[in-house]
Design a protein that fits this description.
Helices cover 76% and strands 0% of the residues. The chain is mainly alpha-helical.
Length: 62
């Protein structure tokens, strides 16, 4: 269960990359694909950073 947040972070980054680098969902999301892709990648990176910091803090305390 402790790696769930890391897996979700990877999924956010992959989804954002798919929006930015492919024509996936181009018919549905025309004008907002770029901002949504950037936001998904940013959110995934922030979640991964927070997970890493939380995991490192737990390792120091033990």
């Amino acid at each position: 269960m402790k790696f769930f947040a890391l897996v979700m972070s990877a999924l956010y980054v992959l989804g954002g990359s798919a929006l930015l680098l492919t024509d996936w969902l181009e018919d549905i999301i025309r004008s907002y694909r770029l901002p949504i892709g950037i936001m998904l990648i940013g959110y995934g990176v922030v979640r991964a950073y927070l997970w890493r910091r939380k995991f490192a803090d737990r390792q120091e305390g033990e």
